[in-house]
Write a structure and sequence with these properties.
It is a single chain. The protein is mainly α and 86 residues long. Helix content is 58%, strand content 0%. Helix 2 packs across helix 3, helix 2 packs across helix 4 and helix 4 crosses helix 5.
Amino acid sequence: MTLERAIAKDLGDDINLALVGLLLPGCSTASTFVCKGKVKPLALPKQHPEFLPAFHALGTCVDIEDSVLKETEKFTRLMYGSNRVI
């Protein structure tokens, strides 16, 4: 089994479908979120799968609904340790 397949198997189908949305802000040479890297954004959905539909939508459509933006904002606040949600 290749390393890529092992990682994909470990992440699971739901997170694999959300990868485009989760990793969209960055590239292979820069962190996706300031001071968070790529590990925490990939680990957090395992603890909070309610955010996965929003990230699935980011990876599949060009027009982003307000509800998707609100969910990604909640995710970002949670990732940075803020309990305050607008």
